[in-house]
């Protein structure tokens, strides 16, 4: 069933992980200006795997960047697990991201000169953990994603699926409350894509967690608890189940 | 994180080797050329090093130790009469032609020492006794003279052998060790009177008056007294050295020529290291963006980039300095070209290399600080 869109700013409910109200974002100036987000309202709940879908250029990635605190927006409010990002100075947003957000990127973004263990350790090291403790936790995480024994391999020695699992391990190793995934399966075959999404759904089910996935990949729609459909910089519809989303705009 | 930052750079073999090569080359060029330059300047002070005296009295127009405007013999007694002078002795210095056994000529530097005191005598005798200079036609030659004057002989020239200077026979009574001089000619020591016999006759023959202050009087004080009393120029040894170096700075193209090479080393360092390091940063911009997205602060990323730049700078400097020392020791063993590495050259080069690294890092840091972490979400 498609949900009605909220018409006015409301205080976030207790189980709301991400609460976005009236966010505008324009890139460029003057005649070259492009308004990527137009008064976007958006919610993601704790314990859910939410997908943001829509045609290319509709503002999905911009919304994801705003939620992740990696992109400044022009107007509006963004609350993530109770922290009002719109009120925080940049240094505190950075600190917030460091502690609370895990990222999975389309092109994995693994450092090619570092091995799997070192890549996974990065968020822990950035959070100030010592090298030994970071490597021990990273080892456990690699084991969890099925890469035990491949710790010393560099990304170039791993397949695309294995690289994405390293990226997932890196995103989860510091136990973030919010996991942001940008096209996580676009470079993967069907089986690897399914494994990745099963893992993400498991992560989303953990208490106090939330996973937001931006995707074009209709093979993984079935893993969504809810789907937010965007069009032309706005949230067009919210679907309680993937079955009501027909993907006709793709 | 710092270890990983270093690994990021070191594991990027191509960039790392290029970066290191630029810094090694810049270090080598700056240090080695500065070393040769200082070596040349040291050579210009060769006379001061080989004929030691606290005070050198010369004609008022003389600015450096390698130029001579002869004094009158009576000037020695005038200087001796200045209050505070313990002793004052004459010295002859001139460039003559030595005739070799095969008939060819070689230029030599003839030094005439005071007959009685031998003040200004060479400090290291390799063979023979300096006192034997008082024998008729006696000379002491340095090791370079042994090398240069042996041509045409079945064995190296030595004690007891004779050669000609200005058609007069010189008999070798000793061999000494000297410091190289700017002209690169060997030193021949004789007594003052004997030197005047070898040298072509001119109206005035006295080159320098070597002076020592009385006990309790300072060198500068006595030198000032000599200047004001006699109208002659009196330099302390150190002051004469400085004046000599200044003269070469003002009157020769040597500093400009070496300065340009050293500047070239610096520019090459900036160009190669700066561009390569910037290319490394650009190539890894997505990864820095990812680190930023994951919560690495600008401060942390700045420290990582500085560490990378200064680490490669330190390694490049170390290798460059090592190669310079190797080349320098080869030069010193051969005796040519001049080379000297006083402490301030490595320190100044280190400063220049760190500056190059700081410039290289600054461009990268600027780029990273401007970087929006959202870049990682763009395909």
Tag the structure with descriptive keywords.
heterodimer; A: 250 residues; Rossmann fold; 7-stranded mixed sheet; 4-stranded antiparallel sheet; B: 379 residues; alpha+beta; 2 domains; 6-stranded mixed β-barrel; 18% strand
Q: Please tally the helical runs of chain A, counting DSSP H or I stretches of 4 or more residues.
A: 6
What global shape of chain A is seen? Answer: globular
Number of strands of chain B: 10
Terminal Cα span of chain B: 26 Å
Helix content of chain B: 40-55%
Structural class of chain A: alpha/beta
| Unreliably modeled segments of chain A | 1-11
The number of distinct structural domains of chain A comes to 1
* Unreliable residue runs of chain B: none
Q: Give the strand tally of chain A.
A: 11
The mean pLDDT of chain B is: 89
Question: Tell me, what's the shape of chain B?
Answer: elongated
What integer value in Å does the Rg of chain B equal?
A: 29 Å
Could you characterize what this model shows?
The complex is a heterodimer of chains A (250) and B (379). With 250 residues, chain A is α/β, with parallel strands linked by helices. Chain A is 30% helix and 26% strand. Chain A contains 6 helices and 11 strands. Chain A has a 7-stranded mixed beta sheet with strand order 1-11-10-4-9-8-7. In chain A, strand 2 and strand 3 (34-45) form a beta hairpin. In chain A, helix 3 (116-126) crosses helix 4, helix 4 packs across helix 5 and helix 5 runs parallel beside helix 6. In chain A, 49% of the residues are buried. Mean pLDDT of chain A is 85; it is low at 1-11. Chain B is of the alpha+beta class and 379 residues long. Chain B has 2 domains: 2-43 and 253-377, no CATH class; 72-231, no CATH class. Chain B has a 6-stranded mixed β-barrel. The longest helix of chain B has 37 residues, at 298-334. Chain B is elongated. Chain B starts with a helix and ends in a 9-residue tail after the last helix. In chain B, 43% of the residues are buried. The chains are: A alpha/beta (250), B alpha+beta (379). Chain A binds chain B through residues 61, 64-65, 68, 70-71, 91, 94-99, 101, 103, 105-107, 109, 111, 113-114, 118, 121-123, 125-127, 131, 182, and chain B through 1, 3-4, 7-8, 11-12, 284, 286-287, 289-297, 300, 372-374, 376-379.
């Amino acid at each position: 069933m498609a949900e009605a869109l909220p018409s006015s700013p409301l205080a976030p409910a207790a189980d709301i992980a991400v609460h976005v109200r009236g966010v505008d974002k324009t890139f460029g100036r003057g005649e070259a200006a492009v308004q990527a987000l137009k008064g976007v309202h958006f919610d993601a709940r704790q314990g859910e795997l939410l997908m943001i879908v829509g045609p290319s250029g509709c503002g999905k990635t911009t919304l994801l960047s705003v939620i992740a605190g990696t992109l400044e927006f022009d107007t509006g409010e963004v609350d993530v697990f109770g922290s009002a990002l719109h009120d925080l100075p940049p240094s505190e947003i950075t600190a917030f991201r460091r502690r609370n957000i895990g990222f999975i990127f389309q092109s994995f973004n693994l450092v090619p000169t570092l091995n799997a263990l070192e890549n996974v350790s990065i968020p822990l090291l950035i959070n100030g953990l010592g090298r030994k403790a970071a490597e021990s936790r990273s080892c456990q995480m690699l084991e969890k994603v099925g890469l035990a024994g491949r710790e010393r391999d560099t990304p170039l020695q791993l397949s695309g699926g294995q690289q994405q699992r390293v990226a997932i391990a890196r995103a989860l190793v510091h136990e973030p409350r919010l996991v942001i995934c940008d096209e996580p399966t676009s470079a993967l075959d069907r089986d690897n894509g399914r494994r990745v999404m099963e893992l993400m759904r498991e992560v989303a089910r953990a208490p106090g967690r939330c996973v937001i996935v931006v995707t074009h990949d209709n093979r993984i729609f079935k893993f969504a608890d809810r789907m937010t459909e965007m069009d032309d910089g706005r949230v067009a519809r919210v679907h309680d189940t993937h079955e009501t989303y027909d993907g006709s705009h793709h | 994180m710092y270890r990983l930052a270093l690994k990021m750079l070191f594991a990027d073999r191509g960039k790392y080797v290029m970066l290191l090569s630029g810094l090694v080359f810049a270090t080598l060029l700056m240090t080695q050329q500065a070393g040769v330059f200082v070596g040349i300047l040291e050579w210009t002070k060769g006379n001061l090093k080989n004929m030691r005296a606290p005070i050198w009295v010369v004609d008022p127009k003389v600015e450096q130790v390698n130029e001579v405007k002869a004094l009158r013999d009576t000037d020695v007694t005038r200087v001796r009469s200045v209050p505070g002078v313990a002793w004052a002795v004459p010295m002859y210095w001139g460039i003559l032609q030595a005739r070799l056994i095969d008939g060819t000529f070689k230029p030599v530097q003839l030094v005439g020492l005071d007959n009685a005191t031998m003040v200004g005598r060479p400090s290291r005798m390799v063979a023979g006794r300096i006192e034997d200079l008082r024998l008729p036609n006696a000379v002491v030659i340095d090791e370079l003279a042994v090398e240069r004057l042996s041509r045409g002989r079945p064995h190296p020239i030595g004690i007891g052998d004779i050669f000609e200077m200005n058609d007069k026979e010189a008999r070798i009574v000793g061999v000494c060790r000297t410091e190289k001089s700017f002209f690169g000619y060997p030193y021949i020591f004789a007594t003052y009177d004997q030197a005047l016999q070898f040298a072509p006759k001119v109206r005035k023959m006295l080159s320098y008056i070597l002076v020592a202050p009385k006990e309790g009087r300072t060198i500068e004080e006595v030198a000032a007294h000599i200047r004001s009393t006699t109208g002659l120029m009196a330099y302390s040894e150190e002051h004469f050295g400085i004046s000599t170096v200044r003269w070469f700075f003002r009157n020769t193209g040597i500093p400009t020529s070496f300065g340009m090479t050293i500047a070239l080393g610096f520019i090459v360092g900036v160009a190669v290291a700066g561009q390569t390091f910037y290319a490394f940063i650009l190539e890894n911009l997505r990864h820095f963006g990812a680190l930023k997205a994951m919560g690495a602060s600008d401060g942390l990323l700045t420290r990582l980039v500085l560490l990378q730049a200064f680490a490669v700078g330190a390694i490049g400097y170390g290798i460059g300095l090592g190669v310079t020392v190797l080349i320098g020791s080869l030069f010193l063993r051969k005796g040519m070209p001049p080379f000297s590495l006083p402490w301030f050259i490595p320190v100044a080069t280190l400063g220049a290399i760190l500056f190059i690294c700081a410039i290289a890092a600054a461009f990268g840091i600027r780029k990273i600080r401007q970087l929006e972490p959202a870049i990682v979400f763009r395909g």
